[in-house]
Structure formats: structure tokens, C-alpha cells
Design a protein that fits this description.
Chain lengths: 222, 224
Amino acid sequence: MRVVHLRSAVCLLGRFPALAGADLDVFAGEVVLVTGANGAGKTTLLRVCAGLAPLRSGTAEVLGHDLRADRRAVRRAVAFVGHETFCYDDLTVAENLRFAALAAGRPASAAGDALERVGLGRLAAVAHGRLSQGQRRRLSLAVALARDARLLLLDEPHAGLDDAGRRVVDGVLAGAPAEGRTVLVASHEAELVRRYATREVQVTGGRVVERPRAAAGVEVAR
Amino acid sequence: MTLLRESALVMGKDLRIELRSRVALQQILPFGGVVLVLFAFALDPDRGLLSRVAPGLFWAAVLLAALLAVTRSFAVEDANRARDGLRLSGIDPGAVFLGKAAAIAVELLVLEAALGAGVVVLYDVEPRGVLLLACAALAATAGLAATGTVYGVLSSGLRARDTLVPLLVLPAVTPVMLGATRAFEAALDGVPGDGWPWVQLLVVFSALAVAAGVAVFGPLLEES
């Protein structure tokens, strides 16, 4: 099953084409590593797939839904872990998670499960505003898990995390196919993701280029 | 999930944030009180005038405080790009509108109760026609909250948000100010029969504001 299908996708940030005719297919159960230089369009690619950034032209389908016609249906089934947590500073960790789970139509218990999985159980009653940057990243990941999204869109998931936090991310990446999730992960720390990636693409100048595994492997060896 | 359940979820989230931050209690409520006191100082030499214009002064204070409540309601969505989280949540935009408007309305009703007590004490007003007062306050509050929520999302994300909200909201809620003030005057003057037509106007305005909000909030949230 095709989870992401982009053809000639163009997305403008102001007047700048952050995506300039991107083509991409991602299939169910894949973990696709997205690499590229700063400003190449990686984050925009993920935001388009999440239905957060509008398409100027081209076609885009995510989980069978046309992004130009029904972004809401897409958003219900995806989770985006970006540079911000999308959480509320005055709510506790548990309250933020509970809100995310209930909003996605999941039971409140899903919040507790996600909390334990990312190792934030002891911080359940702490306000989001008091969390460290690394703890916020973990909470952001917990929100994605609590929503039980079929497509995970991870933007630099290892950034700002200690070793324990990185192991949590690794666990999510490693377990995704077995849990029926598809993952699109943009990272500058490619070597950390390649262990779990089934495929690798590179974003250059707003376009997506397939990277053969051999080429990626050579780079790792270097 | 139904529209109402989603609305309740958003309303609960917003009210919980306000309870935690205490901005409404520690800033908006005192602001409304200060406005009332300033009016009292300005008109103090003529106590008769003060009690006569009390309804208008009360609603002017409520309206000014409401602007703060609306701005605050959308400011919390700016931090950590929570607005993106709200859009990603999959909650019906109409439910987001209803939830946020309901939370603002609850805050305003608490504010009105406190300011109403202040008017009785400071302006030497005898409360009469309580049913009319309550109905007018409910209908006016719904209209204020719904209109404020629409213009709040319209201006959210803009650098000029803080100045844009008053510019947009104040002209739009003129019918609310007019209707609520006239209804309160009628109640306090002991002629409630003159006040009910104004309540009807408030109900119609509020219904239109809520319907328009449900319809346009989604596109506005996407653009914010």
C-alpha cells in the first residue's frame, strides 16, 4: 500500500519554492531516511505530508487522501514530531498527552502508555514549561505515540537528546514496521537512522532524489 | 467524536490553562475593576449621573476586559506552535471555535459577576430585574465571545495582533454593547418590558455570530 504519493509537488514559503516539483513514493511499513543540507526542503516535505503546509501545485496523496481536498483526514492519521512540541506550557505532561490522545479519538489510557514508553512517567505532573529541551523532545514523541498514527513524520528526532533519549527514538524507529507504522524521518545525523531505514532519499533544491543503499553505505563506511 | 465532545475537550483545555496561569484572575479581572474605579473617579461629583450610566460603564469595562481574554486565548496557541498541534489533532475546526468561544464566555461570565458586584458597591446601583439582567448578560456574552473568537483567529499569528484585535472587535460588537446596555437600563429602571426586545436582538446577533464562526473558523485557522 502506498502511504505517501507526491508528484511535481510545489510548496511556497512566501515566494520561495521550498519544494520545487518533488516526487516521492513511500510504502507501508517503510522507514525512509530523508537527508539534505540546511534549507534544502526536508522540513517542508514533512510538513506537506502532514497537511500543515499547502501545496501550490502538483498532486499529493497521503494514506489514500488527497491533501488538496481533505487535509483533515490526513492529519488524523499522521503524527509530526518537529522542532516544536505543539504542547501547552501551562498544562502538565500528562494533561498535554491526554488532550492529544482524546483529540485523536484514542482513549485516555493511551496517554499513560505513551508516557511510560518514552520514560517520562515520573514527570507526568510537571508542567510542560518546566521541562528541559530533551524532555520536551521525548514528550513530543509520546504525543505521536499516543495518537497511534499510521504515518510518523520525524524531523531531527535525535537532536538535543541524551543517550537514553536517543535509545527511545531508536526503539520507535526499530519497532515501527512491526507496529504497522510507516516513518519518514529527516535527519542530519544520518548514521543514527540508517540502521533502521529501509530506504534513503535526499532533498536538494526542493526536489527529492532517491539514494541507492549502496551509495549510502559507502558514505557510512567513509 | 461528536462536535460537542470535541468542543468540550477544547473548552476544558483552555479553561485548565487559565486556571493554571491565573491570567484571567490576576490580570483581566483587576483590569476590569480598575476601569470601573476610573469611571467612578471621573464621574464622582455627580453620583446621580454615575448610577444612570452604570449599565454603559459596566459593559464598556466588560468589553475592554474581553479584548484581553480574546488575545490571551490565541496567545497560548502561539507558544510552541500549539496552533499546529491543534490543526494536526484532527479536531473539527467548528468544534475548536465552539470550545474556545465557550471558554472565553465562561471567563467573561465570571468577570461580569465580579464587575456587577463592583457596580452595585461603587456606583450605588440597586439590582432589579434579575431575570432580565441574567438573560441579557448570557446573550451578550455569547455574542462577545463568538465575535471575539472569530477576530482572534483572524489576527492570530500576526505581529500586529495586539492592536488589531481591538480595531476589529470593537466595531463588530457595537450591537452587543447597544443591546446589552439598553436591556440593563430597562431592568435597573424597573421597566423590564422595555428590555426584552433588546434581549431578542442580542440572541439573534449571538446566533448569527456563532453560525458565522462555525462556518469561517476552519479557513481562518488554516491561514493563521
